[in-house]
Every structure is written in C-alpha cells, then in structure tokens.
Design goal:
This protein has 59 residues and is mainly α. The protein has one domain. The protein has two helices and no strands. It starts with a helix and ends with a helix. The model has no long low-confidence stretch (mean pLDDT 85).
Length: 59
C-alpha cells in the first residue's frame, strides 16, 4: 500500500520527466550514469580494501 505522499511525488517526477527536452534528458542520463559509475567504483574500492584487511588479519 503506497502512501498518498509517495504517489504524489512519483506523479510529479513522471510529469517533470515528460516535460524535459531531448537535450535535458540526455544531460540527466549522462549525470545519472556518472553518479552510478562513481557509486560502483567506490563499492569496488571499499570491497578491495576490506579483503586486503581480512587477508592481513588472517595471516
């Protein structure tokens, strides 16, 4: 069951997306892709650091 507030925010987001020009959509997609790449990279960096710490601890 969704709250009325969540549904309103979702509807507002959909409307904002529909009103964007193709250029604005491309910029938004590019920004989203860059942010997701940074998030993925930071996760890999953290997991690598964690595995190195665990290996040193186990030795």
């Amino acid at each position: 069951m969704k709250s009325a507030l969540i549904q309103k925010k979702y509807d507002d987001l959909v409307e904002a997306c529909r009103s964007m020009t193709p250029e604005e959509r491309l910029v938004a997609f590019s920004n989203h892709s860059q942010l997701m790449d940074q998030l993925r990279y930071s996760g890999k960096k953290h997991s690598t650091k964690k595995s190195v710490i665990q290996k040193n601890y186990e030795s």
